[in-house]
## 1
Amino acid sequence: GLTGNFYGSVSYNPFVGIRQQLVAKTNVPVFVVEAADEVAADQLRFRLLTLDTFNGGQWFADDPDVGDPADGWEEPDHAWSGPVAEVETEITIRALTSEWLPVAYSPVSLSGEREVVGNLGIRDEGSIRFEGGRTFTGMTYTVTSRIPAIDVAQIATSNNGELSPVFAAAAEAGEPVTTGTPAETMRPEPHQPERFLDLPEDLDPTVDTLARSITRNLGTSFEKGLALETFFRDPANGFRYSTDIQPGHGATDLADWLIDPESPNHRTGYCEQYAASMAVLARSAGVHSRVVIGFTPGDRLSDGRVVVRDSNAHAWVELWIPEAGWVPFDPTPRSDSANPTTLAALGLPFDVRPYLELPDPPEPEVDSSPAPPAQLEDFETFPIPGAGGDEEITPSSSFRLPSWLPVALGAFAALTAVVGAIPAVKWWRRRRRMRRLLAGDISAAWEEIVVRLTDLGEAPDPTLTPTEIAGDIDESMEPLAAVYSKATYGPVATATAAEVAMAEESLEQTTARLSTRYSTVQRLAATYRPETILPGWWRRLRARRRSG
């Protein structure tokens, strides 16, 4: 639920903050809905306001300018381009006091008493503001809305008629996937796209790392939305719905709430935290997003009307899907099941979740077989400069090598073989570590970074904690330190798929940062430095000699 106070009425703060607030959830009726259309009123969500700006601490509606209904409702470039169901709802306010009217998305007309109709303002995303003050008990109005219907087959089909990566993987596995007709209109970006991608410059980089790990290898905004929603709803990831949360820094910091297991409210909270967090992660993954404040579907009364209560107050996320428009996603794991996920609402005939973690594409095969040695007869004869005449060296010419040359060449070849074996051994060991990581062993990623740092002459201090080491090296290493610490020292040794993906992403980013910190000569020297492939007893002996 959302923050609210009940003093004979219920009002809602139109700003969703990543912060602790008291949550008042009651059964007070805030409005009643009557509808006689093909879409049942007890299946509709009702929105108050859409929030498009995140300043690092809270979401809000930036400059919520409103226009005259005569000039149009929702901005055409935001409108849903897929199939819709038109529904008419009569809404009667009970205890709600708000300057924004609850309506089903997306409204296209509103009628009622002159006091209501003559005092309306429309935002470009369809929110309706009552400029006559605040809503009041008995206030009644009728809204015609066009309810979006998600055509999964269409969204999952690209312009060339091929399925997007997740659904292609499902089809290849034998799942009953339907290929649809590609959308007639593709709008890669919504109106004023920067509004829905902007993030603070000082946003903790671990948030970006987490977003990229969750959406790794996914091809479309729709697939990324399903993966992000699943990330929050999967019990294995440790998210818990609760309005009883402790005050502390973890409540006010997005990265701490998402990533730091020692945060007072780590992955525990209510809809404000969940919606705000998913919207930020979506933007970090390159998907246009916004947060919506409104109400989940209400309860049907015996006379057919639907009552929406204070406890239905909710916040969710909408992502821009180029094939259709704004699609709702709900990351909050509410205990009352009042908010089904988009994934559940799709009604797919198979479970798509296993396919939301796609493997890395195979690396191109390289022919590693050695070239056949050149034969002496393959070389052409050539004249000896200054020898006079046309004398040539041929295979049968009596030419003798110096006696010392074969020995020198042999020694050089042996030295080359030894030196050349160093990077080969390192490559083999690195490959083993990467296989362990893919199998879920996060310690392999940590070992890889420690080895790289040691090769570069910056061996981590073994007396420091992983978090302290990461703080000394680079912020991109911090997500790996967090999941490694949890896997090593936490109560549960098995890492989740999301944690493994985060470790992979953090390893990749840290490696990239290290490549820019050191010169080419330093990196080349690190390639041939043998210390990390020497036996442990040899390294300890060398360390004692150095200290002595």
## 2
Amino acid sequence: MRILKFGAGDTQAVQELSASFVVPALTPWETKVLTTALRFIGYPYVWGGESEFPNSPFGPQVHGGFDCSGFVWRVYKVEQYVDGGTLPDMLQGRTTYAMSGEVPVTKRIPAPKLQPADVLFFGAKGPKSKPAQIDHTGIYLGNGWFIHSSRYGVAVAPLSGWYGERLAWGRRPLAEAGLVSAG
């Protein structure tokens, strides 16, 4: 794990925000996915990055680290989950645009119905965004928090303010793979 450097103001803001975080009740599969995601906290943002190692199995990258879609790709597509069945097959595309476009409109999950381990998609028009307008992705932790890779690296953030306004929809790969209920 890598540690991010924060200034005094940043540390105080993080402490205040984190005081409101409560770990939700999780299914075993949600626990597996979120445990995988959380172990990458502190890794740097690397444009096109999809691995914690400089030499990714998918080609060399300058540093170990992730861009937003590479982080989601790593957690869902590359991780070898025991008894994961078709889970790695749920995400076909590697980019945010491709992953968001794989979700039929009828399967898009609105903010009030998000569950832990859902993949989140963000666009400038929020829920009215089209796949071509989706420019960010992350993984929902529950209780209004998510994990993602932004210019600050892999970190946990509240799903409010700018992110809350831009949240377009969620996707439930665990349900798509038959590992949790769709509801």
